[in-house]
Every structure is written in C-alpha cells, then in structure tokens.
Amino acid sequence: MIKKRNLVFLGAPGAGKGTLAQELCKEKKLAHISTGDILRSEIKKGSELGKKANSYVTSGGLVPDDLVADMVAKRLLDNDCQNGFVLDGFPRTVNQADLLEKALTKIGRKLDGVVYFEAAEDLLIKRLTARLVCKQCNTIYNTIFSAPAKKGICDKCGIELYQRPDDSLETAKDRLLIYNEQTAPLVPYYKNKKMLATINAALSKDKSYPELIKVLS
Ligand code: ADP
Ligand code: ZN
What we know:
Bound molecules: adenosine-5'-diphosphate, zinc ion
Number of strands: 8
CATH architecture: 3-Layer(aba) Sandwich
Strand content: 15-25%
C-alpha cells in the first residue's frame, strides 16, 4: 500500500511524469489527471474550452491559469478521484499552485505530496522528439527508450501512433524554456512546504518506478 495518494507530479516536459503516472494510476487505482490530455481531447471535440486553448497548446505556450485551474477543479469532483489522484502537468505556475490549494480546501481535501522528476536538458530533448502517442488510449511510447513491439503501432489497441505536433524539435525547445521560467519555481515552492520528493528521471522506467513507490510508501 502507498501512503501518499493525492499527488502532484512535477518536472520538465519529457521527464517521464506521464509514463509513470499511467503506470502508477493503473496499479494503485488512482485517477490520472493529465491536463495536456484533457486539453488535447477538448481541442479535438471542438468544445468552447478547446477553442480557447488551441493556439496555446499548438505553439507550446501555457493556457491561461484560470482556464486550466477551473478545468482541474471540476475534474477533482469526479468519483474516481475519491481514492486518490495524480495531477500530471498541473500546476505549471506558482499562481496555479495557489489556485489548486484553494480548490482542494473548498472540497475538504489536500495534497499528500509532490514528486519532482529531475533530468538534464539534453536527455529531455532526446526523449521529447522521439515520443509517440497512441491516438486512442494515450499510451506513451518512445522510439529510443520504449519502442512498441511493432513499429508505429500501439501494443494495446493495435492502432497507429502519432507524434504530437508540439514534440517537434523547435517547439520542444520552446516548451523547455517556458518550463524553466514559469514551472521550475514550483520546485523551491513545494520544497519550502516540505512536500517535495525527488526522483532521478534519467533512470529507465523499470528503475524509476520502484523509486517512485518508495517515496510514496
Ligand atoms: P508536456 O508535459 O510533455 O509538456 P502536456 O501534455 O502536459 O505536455 O501539455 C501539453 C500542452 O498543454 C502544454 O504545452 C500547454 O500548452 C498545455 N497545458 C497543459 N497543462 C497546462 C497547465 N497546467 N497550464 C497551462 N497550460 C497547460
Ligand atoms: Zn493504444
């Protein structure tokens, strides 16, 4: 059993938060809340939220804090969050972290911990630009580090994988710049609150997953 179940995963794009979040949530029955996945699905649906978010997501910029925070606050009310949740990709600014705290207080809940995935920049670029995602189930693959059994095809659904447009080299670099400016300050922010546990994100998934379970136990 893991003790910490209401979690934030923090780290640069490409650090492996999403991959480990998918695995952890499946095994421990936690709700996986990936703001990137929700936004991409809203864009695909053409919803009001999707229309507002489209240009930011495509260019690798940040969607305005209020929009994402409202979206997360609503998602946290869903039944599957009762047992615990992993926020993957949120908060991404100090302001979002404050909004999150307010939203949690309002529903009588609180964070148990924040896991920081630490990795060097060159590895991040390498991972991002080699990333492929399933169109149907959002499972993340990587042509260098965790290739699917059959090239370009999801192991689970048998359908085609795609490269996210924002994983192109140029946009990936922009996203890392934005991460360093706007999101990295959350590391000292949560450290000060004594909530931060750090994982070496350069490790392979088989090695980092046990590390993750250790810090949550
Ligand atoms: P990654 O972690 O690989 O950068 P995500 O799938 O988490 O990718 O996010 C993709 C894009 O969605 C971001 O570049 C941004 O435009 C938008 N986004 C996701 N989460 C947030 C957030 N918390 N605040 C603002 N924008 C967000
Ligand atoms: Zn799939």
